[in-house]
Amino acid sequence: TLQEVLTAGKTTTISIESSADITTTAQFNGDIDGALLQTVKAAESLLKGDVVYISGGTGDNPEVSKALASDSTKMPAIGIMKEPINTIGDIGECITSGELTGVTLSSIATGAELFVSAITEGAVSITAPTGEANLIQKIAKVIKGGNGGALTVLGAFRTNAVPNLDSGKIFL
User: Fold this and answer.
1) Distance between CA atoms of 172 and 159, rounded to whole angstroms?
2) pLDDT in tens, 45-69
3) pLDDT, mean over the chain
């Protein structure tokens, strides 16, 4: 049986013919092809593609809200919503790393880097925010532009660039 194989530490290939859930207490070693997901609770209404940060925590899942690079209390982003959550307190999934498909990227070219917006909560920008009050976090890269587009989520959990400096200022 599968249980005997797993507990004996043997290597085996498992083929799944349906979308049934699989659980095991054995250690898994191998590659994962797909997005890394975080189950989250909505602190506000969220759309598929919204960039989110952890805004609180109650129960078993982190509570998330829309990220904003111009407000340090709304950063860093942890990822991009995989699905909409319309009701506050409902549970959904956020992609922390990996591919998000089926998004409208009509004016964004394949290969473009996307940053957390400093202007619109939950949005991305094709240019890094400027001005020393804004944080810079690259959150994704477009792998297919246009309608039905796709992007790879990256850089979640931390702002990852040297802060901006206003004109006439230097780092000491």
Assistant:
1) 20
2) 999 999 999 999 878 899 999 999 9
3) 84
Answer whether residue 26 shows pLDDT above 80: no
Beta strands in 17-86 (DSSP E): 36-42, 51-58, 61-66, 77-81
Give pTM, 2 decimals: 0.77
**97 and 153 Cβ atoms separated by less than 8 Å:** yes
In a 10 Å sphere around its CB, with 0-12 CB exposed, 13-18 middle and 19+ buried, how is residue 161 labelled?
Answer: middle
Cα separation, 16 vs 103, whole angstroms: 28
Across 31-66, b (16+ Cβ under 10 Å) vs e yields eeeebeebebbbbeebeebbbbbbbeeeeeebbbbb
